[in-house]
Specification:
Strand content: 5-15%
Strand order of the largest sheet: 2-1-3-4
Low-confidence stretches: none
Shape: globular
Distance between the termini: 58 Å
Structural class: alpha/beta
CATH superfamily: Creatininase
Largest sheet: 4 strands, parallel
CATH topology: Rossmann fold
Number of domains: 1
Number of strands: 6
Length: about 270
C-alpha cells in the first residue's frame, strides 16, 4: 500500500489551514469518474477505481514543492449512454453541470482560482468543457480538463484496431482492472466484443464516433453486451504498464499547469 501525504487531500485540511495557505499558488484537482456497466466481465466501478488509483500514485509522487491538492472524487457522472444496463448510475447533463459548478464555486470561495478536472469517463467530457468555461466566466477561474487516457498509451502494447475501437471494457480497461482488482474481473465472461464502429469504418468515409460525422449513441448500439474491444487479449502486465505511463504523463501535466499564471486569463478587449 502506498503511503500518501495527507496534506495532498482537501478533506484532510482544516479551515485554519485554508486561512493560512497562499491560496493563489494552489491547484485544486477534482477527480471525476463514473459508476456504470462495463460489459459482463467487469464491475461497475471501473472508472472510479482507475482514477482513485491514479490519484493515490500522484499524491505520492508529486514533488514536495507542488501545491496540488485533491478534492474527493465525484464518483457519479453522466452515464446515460449506459442506462439500458442495470447497475449503471447516472446524473443528467444538467445535474452534473450544476453539481460541478457548485463545487467549483466552493473552491473559488476558499481562495483557490486554479482547478483541474481529472476525468476517467468519456461521457463526462462535454459537460466538463462547459463547466470549465462557465467557471472562467462566473468566477474568473483557470480550469483545465484532463482525461487520464488522453495522452496516448504505451507503445507496442495495444493493437491499432484496439486503440481505435476498444473504447469500453476492451483490452485496455480490462488489463487495467486485472492490475488493480483481479478478483472482480470475470475473465470467463470476457470475449472479443466487436463494436459497430468496425463496420462503419469499412462502409463509410466520414461516419463514426471519432470522425467528422458523429452520431448520438447508447452502448447497445455499438455492441449488445455494452462492451467494445477484445477483452481476451488483456493481461495485468499491460494494465500496470498503462497505469505507469498515465501517471508519468499526469505528473508532467500537473507541473505545466502549476507553472501557468492566472494572468493567462484576461479581461482586456480591443476597441
Amino acid at each position: 500500500m502506498i503511503k500518501v501525504k495527507t496534506n495532498r487531500f482537501w478533506e484532510n485540511l482544516s479551515s485554519f489551514d485554508f486561512y493560512n495557505m497562499e491560496t493563489e499558488k494552489y491547484l485544486a484537482v477534482l477527480p471525476v469518474a463514473a459508476v456504470e456497466q462495463h460489459g459482463p466481465h467487469l464491475p461497475v466501478n471501473v472508472d472510479s477505481k482507475i482514477v482513485d488509483s491514479l490519484v493515490e500514485t500522484l499524491a505520492e509522487k508529486l514533488p514536495a514543492k507542488s501545491k496540488a491538492i485533491f478534492l474527493p472524487t465525484q464518483r457519479i457522472g453522466k452515464s446515460n449512454e449506459h442506462l439500458k444496463y442495470p447497475g449503471t448510475l447516472s446524473l443528467s447533463a444538467e445535474t452534473m453541470r450544476v453539481t460541478l459548478m457548485e463545487l467549483g464555486k466552493c473552491v473559488a470561495s476558499s481562495g483557490i482560482k486554479k482547478m483541474m478536472f481529472l476525468n476517467s469517463h468519456g461521457g463526462n467530457i462535454s459537460v466538463l468543457d462547459i463547466v470549465a468555461r462557465d467557471l472562467r466566466i462566473e468566477e474568473k477561474m483557470l480550469v483545465f480538463c484532463v482525461n487520464w487516457f488522453g495522452f496516448g498509451m504505451p507503445s507496442d502494447i495495444y493493437s491499432e484496431s484496439e486503440l481505435k475501437h476498444g473504447i469500453h471494457a476492451g483490452d485496455m480497461e480490462t488489463s487495467v482492472m486485472l492490475a488493480l482488482d483481479p478478483d472482480n474481473v470475470k475473465m470467463d465472461r470476457a470475449q472479443n466484443f466487436v463494436p459497430k464502429t468496425v463496420e462503419l469504418e469499412s462502409n463509410f468515409k466520414y461516419l463514426g464516433l471519432n470522425s467528422g460525422a458523429k452520431f448520438g449513441w447508447q452502448s447497445q448500439d455499438l455492441n449488445a453486451y455494452g462492451a467494445c474491444g477484445n477483452a481476451l487479449l488483456s493481461t495485468a502486465e499491460k494494465g500496470n504498464l498503462t497505469l505507469e505511463f498515465a501517471s508519468e504523463k499526469l505528473l508532467e501535466i500537473i507541473k505545466e499547469i502549476e507553472s501557468v499564471s492566472l494572468d493567462l486569463l484576461s479581461e482586456k478587449i480591443g476597441r
